[in-house]
Design goal:
Layout: E1 3-10, H1 14-17, E2 24-25, E3 29-32, E4 43-45, E5 52-58, E6 61-69, E7 81-85, E8 93-101, E9 112-120, E10 126-134, E11 137-142, E12 150-155, E13 164-171, E14 178-183, E15 194-199, E16 207-208, E17 211-212, E18 220-227, E19 239-251, H2 257-261
Parallel strand pairs: 1-14
Antiparallel strand pairs: 1-13, 2-3, 3-19, 4-7, 5-6, 6-19, 7-18, 8-13, 8-19, 9-10, 9-18, 10-11, 11-12, 14-15, 16-17
Length: 265
């Protein structure tokens, strides 16, 4: 990826910060604020009962709730979390925006989970970038193959019961021109909190020039929700709950892309 940018920002009181994002479901954009009480154009994926993702209300505002429990864990990937997907397929460049909230009484402070993924379906078929909660810290991870990742901490203590906004921009490249930029908690657009350059993302599929070839199973996809990968640290009977709002996924890079996916817009 010649660019994989994440823009994260704080939000004020829950009831004052949520906007009514209208559902969009086109070939190039998938977006909803869950105002109509359903999660279309997204659906739950890589999860199974009793875990779930569904439209809900948090503090009077429409949102999407994810729930995971250790009860009945069967050791499979499907039972390690509750996530949502869409059918958006990106071959070169895309954008991704959303808000997330960790409730003080529903999400443990000593556990780890991936809460958003940029997923390379081609090649070794795994994540190329993630946003993670680790013991109530927020981390961004990126990698060019199914190997070790570059990890950077963005927050040492995530505020509870408060919405945090995220914007992700990513560009596919195999030419060692990769870049990762991160803005967190109100950092200005011209002053990213984190930046990495000269990254090679060649292992995520078959290329046609410097874009992923448009063949079956060779695209970048996006997930959000909880992937509770830390099964070695599960506590018997534990539960985890978190919320998302104003989720937007965009293929391409129009001039107003940042505004199109901005969850505070």
């Amino acid at each position: 990826m010649s660019g994989l940018s994440l823009v994260l920002g704080s939000a004020g009181p829950v009831s004052a910060q949520l906007s009514s994002v209208v559902e969009t479901n086109t070939a190039t954009q998938k977006e909803t604020g869950f105002e109509d009480g359903n999660i279309t154009p997204f659906w739950t994926c890589t999860t199974q009962s009793p875990n779930y993702g569904r439209a809900a209300t948090y503090n009077g505002a429409r949102a999407m709730q994810f729930y995971w429990t250790q009860v009945g864990y069967d050791g499979t990937r499907m039972d390690r979390g509750a996530e949502a997907c869409s059918d958006l397929k990106v071959y070169k460049e895309g954008w991704y925006g959303f808000k997330f909230l960790l409730p003080s009484s529903g999400y443990p402070r000593d556990k780890s989970a991936v809460i958003a993924q940029i997923f390379g379906n081609g090649g070794c078929s795994s994540w190329a970038g993630t946003l993670q909660v680790k013991s109530n810290e927020l981390w961004v991870d990126h990698r060019g193959a199914c190997a070790s990742a570059t990890s950077t901490r963005l927050d040492t203590n995530i505020a509870r019961d408060a919405w945090r906004s995220v914007i992700i921009h990513y560009v596919v490249s195999k030419a060692n021109a990769g870049r990762v930029e991160v803005w967190y908690n109100g950092a200005g657009k011209s002053t990213p909190t984190y930046r990495a350059t000269n990254i090679n993302f060649a292992s995520w599929g078959t290329y046609d020039g410097d874009s992923l070839a448009k063949i079956a199973g060779n695209h970048i996809g996006l997930k959000f929700g909880m992937y509770c990968y830390d099964d070695g640290h599960y506590t018997t009977g534990e539960n985890r709950t978190m919320y998302y709002d104003n989720v937007s996924q965009l293929d391409g890079n129009p001039s107003n892309a940042f505004d199109l996916v901005n969850p505070n817009g």
